Amino acid sequence: MRKILLLSILQAVLAFSICAEAARKRNVAWPSEPVRIMVGWSAGGTSDVVTRALAGEMSKQLGRKIFVTNVTGALGAICGAQVAAGPADGHLLFGGAAVHGTWPILGHSRVSWTDFYAFLGVMYPTTIYVMQDAPWKTLADLIADIEVGPKGRFKYGHPGTGSNGNIFAALVLGAAGVEEKVVSIPYKGGREAGRYLLSKETQFASVSSGDLVDWAVAGRIRPLANLFHEDIVFEGITFPSIVTTYPKLKSYQAINPYIGIYVGRKTPPEIVTKIAETFAEAIRQKQFQKIAVKERAAVLMPLIGRAADEQMSKIESARGWALFELGVAPHSPAEFGVPKLEQWRWPPHARAAALQPWPAEVENISRAVP
Questions:
Q1: 8 Å CB contact between 31 and 91
Q2: Secondary structure (DSSP) of 105-156
Q3: What whole-number distance in Å separates Cα of residue 366 and Cα of residue 362?
Q4: How far is 194 from 197, CA to CA, in rounded Å?
Q5: What's the number of domains the chain is made of?
Q6: Spatial separation of the C-alpha atoms in residues 243 and 235, rounded to whole Å
């Protein structure tokens, strides 16, 4: 009788503990203080605008203000390292492009994508823009002029060394055999690169499509090439696919930036789950989609959980090897166990295999994300 009674008591205690833990997770006190998202790129660019739009919708869901600040430099690595070194309690997040995997390869930071949980929202194809009054109506026109012109006559701007804009332009110029005739100029974000295009200090800009799409709609600039497998038409403007001119560049679509928010991998699971719930609801909102998709020509492709880890890893492979082979990165991705994209399998390396897994509840939430 005693054994039965003791067993019943133990079962009751266990059941109570499980219920208490479940209730604690549901009612986790997050946020318990102001939340800050630090964006690693300049104000006005795609990373900044999309992050602010997402923060605004998350603020509405939480009923608390989320503060967004900008800390530029080293392709977001300076900012990302600061967030990674901060408290892992969900009150300090990183925001912007999903390029973390390139930081070690470029020598910018030891911090990589494996230090974060990634909440990915939208993807932007990379675009080469020229002034509307420029004489080049097609990419072939521009390449032809570069071929006959003197070395150094043409300059192009991009969001920073190792950025998707830098890689895309280098790939195009390399495919055309004119890479040594053009001067590459890094700026602090795509918007800044666009301003130098408008001032005609550069002849073209290679940036995320959303960085300058409003100027294209306004008739100030014109897209000549887009890193996507087919032409995209936005507000009546055609963004010509690079595949038409250089079919071999199709596989490099993986360098196109995802924009999202990122929380430290050591953050407690219940807080990660609460962030996932808030993120998923924010992504569904019309105002967010208006700013990120309808106004900036993004492709809505939200990813959280294991799917986000896989995408971050694929970006690491695609960008890392492109940067190294183009002579931009001082370190071979092989030093970090990063496979080439055609050899990619999950887990791609020991770091990924050792990752703190996503909370099971987040995988359930991911199935309901649009």
A1: yes
A2: HHTS-S--GGGEEEEEEEE--EEEEEETTSS-SSHHHHHHHHHHSPTTSEEE
A3: 6
A4: 5
A5: 2
A6: 22
Residue 67 to residues 92, 149, 282, 299, Cα–Cα distance (Å): 10, 48, 16, 26
Residue 48 to residue 39: CA distance in whole angstroms: 6
Distance between first and last Cα of the chain: 55
| Whether residues 103 and 177 fall in one domain | no
Which candidate, 337, 303, 340, places its Cα nearest to that of 319? Answer: 340
Dihedral angle of Cα 347, 349, 354, 359, to the nearest 10 degrees: -40
Which are the contacts of 308, defined by CB distance < 8 A and separation ≥ 6? Answer: 117, 118, 119, 120, 260
Residues 119 and 262 in one domain: yes
Tens of pLDDT, residue by residue, the chain (370 residues): 444 444 444 454 444 444 444 444 456 789 999 999 999 988 988 899 999 999 999 999 999 999 999 999 998 999 999 999 999 999 999 999 999 999 999 999 999 999 999 999 999 999 999 999 999 999 999 999 999 999 999 999 998 888 899 999 999 999 999 999 999 999 988 999 999 999 999 999 999 998 899 999 999 999 999 999 999 999 999 999 999 999 999 988 889 989 999 999 999 999 999 999 999 999 999 999 999 999 888 989 999 999 999 999 999 999 999 999 888 899 999 999 999 988 999 999 999 999 999 999 999 898 767 7
Residue numbers of the domain that contains 155: 126-254
**pTM value?**
0.81
Cα–Cα dist 41/77, whole Å: 10
